[in-house]
Specification:
three-stranded antiparallel beta sheet; mainly alpha; Arc Repressor Mutant, subunit A; 5 helices; single chain
Amino acid sequence: MRMNADTNECSLGADSQYVELAVEVFSMLADGTRVRIILALRDGEMAVGALADVVGKSPAAVSQHLAKMRLARMVSTRQDGTRVLYRLENEHARQLVADAIFQAEHALGGEPAHHRLPGKGGEGHAS
């Protein structure tokens, strides 16, 4: 599919104008803590302290990762009184991480776990 300014279609061709931006997305996700943050946020909003507990890092370290992810528009925030809650900006980062984990399962050989989970939020895809 080619990008057409009149139709706003996404371009998936090798000559896509979005290739370099896609590389930046992959670069942003090339960090285990950020991947864990995305996994933690896939079911909804969380505060920094709760995220820190889930990913096993200090709140300060998680805050630094979240700041970068916010600049990359992967996460957004909402004020709840004095707390700041983080959530995924859209489903694409979640899907990229899920697909990367599924690819990692394939690298181990045998039947990947996600092939044995039909109907679990799209995770039992066929390939």
